[in-house]
Predict the structure.
Amino acid sequence: MRIGIYDPYLDDLGGGEKYMMTAAQCLSTKHDVTVFWDEKRDLVKLKNRFSLDLESISIEKNIFSNKVSFLERLSQSMRYDAIFFLSDGSIPFVLSKKLFLHLQQPLVNFNQRSLKGRVKALRVSGIFCNSQFTKSFNEKRFNIRTVVIYPPVNLLLKKVYKKNIILTVGRFRVANVKNEDYKKQRTMVNVFMNMVDKGLHEWKFVVATSVHDANDIKFKEMMEIAKGYPIEFLINKNNTQLWEMYNKAKIYWHASGFGEDLEKHPEYAEHFGISTVEAMGAGAVPVVINAGGQREIVTHGENGLLWNSLDELSDMTNELIIDANFWKKLSDSAKMRAKDFGTGKFCSAIEELLK
């Protein structure tokens, strides 16, 4: 089959881009796969950032660009048996035999009930989401068969001695989101500083993140606040470098969605949590917010801990620091849980969509 793949945020180097390009990698083992994009260097960055094998994938003119006419898009799309489209809620007019939409987040203010929307929806063969959390907000809005395909996690494990490190991983975003602490890095920095002020010693907090130029000023403000504390910032590291830290860390923090009205803005919660699974695979115990897709990954007290307040975050973390046996129990279970999100299962589920 000839398959086309489009992700409008391909230059963003986020979890959605890893998801879509891993799907491309999977499909390329059996099919002729094309990615619609104009800047080949962005694919090279993705390949290096996430250790992807994209050698069998073609890159062709982005038919979804505003520079491409509607008629040209229709003409070019006819050449494909299926197109996989990362959607923000929109449905493209294409003439491929099949069209699959991937939804990465809840679309709370969106519906397809207009006549135009209903007509376009008739062309959609199926929708796949990254979590039950995402699916729960979107399935009724589209009234189209929707399945959950959890993101793939490729574990790059290495036997190293664990160190007294608390790790968090996530892009630093201010621009283009209505939130100055989208991934709550600043919130977690403040919590760790408070723990140090109350007597925590011989532990380090590592913030691994990618930062675009548009967010640089706000990021430097956070780094300035953290000066004098055992806090390290790993900026724009590749996948191999990131895994070096996963393998060293004992505890993993995640806080996306804290302090937000998640009824009105569920998109501010973590939609799944690839970094949480990666950390678990390396044996870091997750101490993560009890919201969004994190609840589908972590079972409280079994393979990690779920918190509802910042006091709980610090208290649960202190419990793991003090009780080595409790940490070991959760660490071992976390490693087992991470295996449920392997690339093999992901590839099989993506291939199944085509049937």
